Amino acid sequence: MNTVKSTRAISYILAGSMMVGIAVLSGLFVNAFVVSYMENTTTRAGKAILIQGMGSADGRLTVHVQNVGESAVSFDPTSCVYINSKLEACTIDKHDQSISPGETMTITPGETMTITIVTAAQPKGLRVKVVTMEGASTEVIG
After folding, report:
1. Running along the chain, 142 residues long, what does each successive block of 10 average in pLDDT?
2. Against a cut of 0.85, is the pTM above it?
3. What residues contact 105, with CB distance under 8 A and at least 6 apart?
4. DSSP H or E stretch at residue 115
5. 104 with 74: CB under 8 angstroms?
């Protein structure tokens, strides 16, 4: 008795299931990317800041930042100012209200705050970038 086994059917089934698996995994990857992108984009929607001016006196650089967006933005003094692409520690004041280390400052639309950085550098030629906790940023070259 001669029995012939066909391996072709197994190959077609295996190939088909692999293609379905690859299609499902690709769909999951695209979905994860789109959801992540949309969450990140909508979090920053309506949030914008602008550097209104800079000045230097007594070894301190002062930067005046205004919220020009549609919603409130928050600042962390340990990670909100970059001078020439280098993160600098600073103090933040809003209407004579200062914050303690470890706290954050929130400004509503239209409000202005002052960021003070202790530095020997003069504002002329400095590239100053201010970043909110939400990711909105503004940059100016002095």
Report:
1. 61 87 94 82 74 86 90 89 88 80 85 85 80 88 78
2. no
3. 74, 75, 77, 92, 94, 99, 113
4. strand 112-118
5. yes
Strand order in the sheet with 127-131: 86-88, 81-83, 127-131, 137-141
Rounded CA-CA distance 24/29 in Å is 9
Distances from the Cα of 29 to the Cα of 6, 34, 50, 66, 137, angstroms:
36, 9, 36, 39, 29
What is the C-alpha to C-alpha distance for residues 71 and 39, in angstroms, rounded to an integer? Answer: 17
103, 92 in Cβ contact below 8 A? no
Distances (CA, A) of 20 to 17, 25, 83: 5, 9, 51
